[in-house]
Design goal:
Strand content: under 5%
Oligomer: single chain
CATH superfamily of the largest domain: Tetratricopeptide repeat domain
Largest sheet: none
CATH topology of the largest domain: Serine Threonine Protein Phosphatase 5, Tetratricopeptide repeat
CATH architecture of the largest domain: Alpha Horseshoe
Distance between the termini: 16 Å
Number of helices: 9
Length: 274
């Protein structure tokens, strides 16, 4: 199998990232259609008292509802629409939120201990100080979510979320995710390489080279030949690109041929990371 490479540069946009990111933004998250009507008695109880633990609110329409501090412990909210709802400080312990939409919802300080978040749409949600103990985020949609605490994800998850954010052009958010992956596992070579690529895209060349070198060293120590090769390709690409850019600047030429050079490098690192 022929393995190719990709450089992310501050001069040239990374087309696969932008293309995939655009597709991701244009493609909605498809959730199952509700199979039953909402329980109006329980819905009225919630809206009137904000106290509805153990209620059946499956498929309920609660878009932009003010449920700050609400008691929803062990409540069935499967497939409910809570998009942009205010759930700050809400008690959602043990709640069933499978397939629910919490797109853009405010979950600041909410208690989600043991909640079922299978297939839950948490894109652009605010999770600062939210308690996510014993919560599996592996199948939740988290693009653009803010404030996820380190303990709530594995290094692999933070790395994956970082790649997703990079695809969407949210490079600083991606860097934050990579750093969290590294803070949990300081020998997670994939995160160092992804971090270096993203930093290079933001023209942080010294940091990009440093993290590329760390990735190469870790991959070599771990016997990951493909990862080591990807890192070496990245580091060599940085050096070659810098030389070409320097020559073009000295000769007063534009970046056209430089761009063609970068595009011609291929997609080895991109394919490796994904």
């Amino acid at each position: 199998m022929m393995i190719q490479k990709t450089l992310i540069t501050s001069k040239i946009s990374l087309l696969p990232f932008k293309l995939i990111g655009t597709i991701a933004l244009l493609t909605p998250v498809i959730l199952p259609f509700p199979t039953q009507a909402e329980n109006l008695s329980h819905l009225n109880q919630l809206l009137g008292t904000k106290n509805c633990s153990n209620c059946d609110l499956s498929s309920a329409g609660l878009v932009m509802a003010n449920l700050s501090g609400a008691n929803l412990a062990n409540t069935n909210l499967a497939q409910a629409n809570l998009s942009q709802a205010n759930l700050s400080g809400a008690d959602l312990r043990g709640a069933n939120l499978a397939g629910a939409s919490l797109y853009g919802a405010n979950l600041t300080g909410a208690n989600l201990t043991g909640a079922n978040l299978k297939g839950t749409d948490l894109r652009n949600a605010y999770l600062t100080d939210a308690n996510l103990t014993d919560v599996d985020l592996n199948t939740a949609y988290l693009e653009g979510a803010r404030g996820i605490l380190d303990y709530a994800g594995t290094p692999e998850q933070f790395h994956r979320w970082g790649l997703q954010e990079a695809q969407r052009g949210n490079y600083q958010v991606a860097i934050d995710h990579y750093n969290r992956a590294i803070s949990i596992d300081s020998k997670f070579a994939d995160a160092y390489l992804a971090l270096g690529l993203t930093q290079y895209h933001l023209d942080r060349r010294a940091k990009a080279k440093m993290n590329g070198e760390i990735a190469a060293k870790l991959f070599q120590e771990q016997g990951n030949q493909i990862g080591y090769q990807a890192s070496q390709e990245f580091l060599q690409g940085i050096e070659i690109a810098s030389q070409i850019e320097e020559r073009q600047t000295k000769n007063g030429r534009g970046a056209g041929s430089f761009g063609k050079f970068v595009q011609g490098i291929g997609s080895l690192v991109f394919n490796f990371l994904f």
